[in-house]
Specification:
This protein is of the alpha+beta class. It has 13 helices and 11 strands. It has a single domain, classed as Beta-lactamase. The chain has helices spanning 18-30, 76-88, 111-115, 136-144, 163-175, 179-191, 201-204, 222-229, 237-240, 243-247, 259-270, 277-283, 343-356; strands spanning 10-13, 36-42, 45-52, 195-197, 255-257, 288-291, 298-301, 306-308, 311-315, 321-325, 330-336.
């Protein structure tokens, strides 16, 4: 029998942020599965860099400073950044028909619609096997032939599983590189971000196992079920902790990174890096708002980012999130291997805000 070891919180906090370490330690203690990490950048410096807990489901491997974990939809803004970089370079037009770049694509949508979840290509009509996730061209062919659930631009709904393929195939048709390759070369490497889509063997050795997937609360609604269950496997530990899944590019959900790597994207954007000021303003401005047709709750989308009164960012299934608070000038990310609710991230962010002198969100 394996001996399960308790791995306490590691890392550093700036003076004045000791309560954040205490709150993070409580989160680790209360999690039943693998561990977590938290990183916060504020006004030019890292004020929180914490990690801890187990990296393996059997509790025999510790979460290290460079451990990476799949944060599900927290991956989506990284996919969007690839298209936005091409927009900035003048080789991708947000308001041209997608068919200009991807002629086989059936839905009458624009890249703006795709980036802001207005394209309506959120579910496949025909049943598809898990194995199609491992064949980029096969899945893109299915999406190209798929009808929209609503006329593009008239409503919005998160393309939970396919956002990365919709964005990524446009990127590939324009640039020639896969989304994972473009992300590595043009976004993450220049900004020093430890985040990747499509892991190498070396990266797989750093990957944290996802646990407690049965604890994820299901959403109601037929469109949600269709949009998240076909192809199957995205909540199966044997799939998402497997080498084939981690090697594949499923950019809507299977990016892997550290908390610093995720918060680092938002810190770079707050510093005015990676995108031109004009395009960044457009990307983090509300493109659509109201009730999300897939998830059934009210939200607002920019070009790849969720938008709220505090700033912009993205949460992921199971509790991970990354965000920028524009007004207060901080970037934050919480990633976890134990699937659950977002209450943990909210607790940690509000603890950070209290230390800065801000009201809770």
């Amino acid at each position: 029998m394996n001996t399960v070891t308790r791995f306490d919180a590691q890392g550093v906090v700036e003076p004045g942020f000791e309560t954040v370490r205490e709150a993070f330690a409580r989160v680790l203690t209360e999690q039943r599965g693998t561990g977590a990490a938290l990183a916060v950048w504020h006004e030019g410096r890292w004020i929180v860099d914490l990690w801890g807990g187990a990296a393996s489901a059997d509790g025999t491997r510790a979460w290290q400073r460079d451990s990476i974990v799949q944060p599900y939809s927290v991956s989506k803004p990284f996919a969007a950044m690839c298209a936005l970089v091409l927009v900035d370079r003048g080789v991708l037009d947000l308001d041209a028909p997608v068919q200009r770049y991807w002629p086989e694509f059936r839905a009458p949508a624009t890249p703006r619609h795709v980036l802001s979840h207005q394209a309506g290509v959120v579910a496949l009509d025909a049943a598809a096997p898990t194995s199609v996730f491992y064949d980029w061209h096969a899945l893109c062919a299915l999406l190209a032939d798929q009808r929209s659930e609503w006329p593009p631009g008239t409503a919005h709904g998160e393309s939970a599983l396919f956002y990365g393929h919709l964005v990524g195939e446009i990127v590939r048709r324009v640039d020639g590189r896969s989304l994972g390759g473009f992300l590595r070369d043009e976004v993450c490497a220049p900004a020093g971000l430890d985040f990747a889509v499509g892991l190498t063997a070396d990266d797989q050795a750093r990957a944290v196992e996802l646990t407690c997937l049965d604890d994820i609360e299901p959403h109601a609604g037929e469109l949600y079920r269709r949009a998240t269950a076909n192809p199957p496997g995205t909540r199966d530990p044997a799939v998402v902790n497997g080498a084939a899944w981690r090697t594949a590019e499923v950019p809507a959900i299977n990016g892997h990174g550290t908390a610093r790597g995720i918060a680092g994207l938002y810190a770079a954007l707050l510093r005015g890096e990676l995108l031109s000021p004009q395009l960044l303003r457009e990307a983090v401005s509300v493109q659509c708002s109201g009730v999300d047709r897939v998830f059934g709750h009210e939200n607002a989308w920019g070009l790849g980012f969720g938008i709220d009164p505090e700033g912009f960012g993205m949460g992921g299934l199971g509790g991970s999130f990354g965000a920028a608070c524009s007004a207060a000038g901080y970037a934050i990310a919480f990633v976890t291997g134990t699937m659950g609710t977002h209450a943990r991230g909210e607790l940690l962010e509000n603890t950070v805000r209290a230390c800065i002198g801000l009201a809770p969100i």
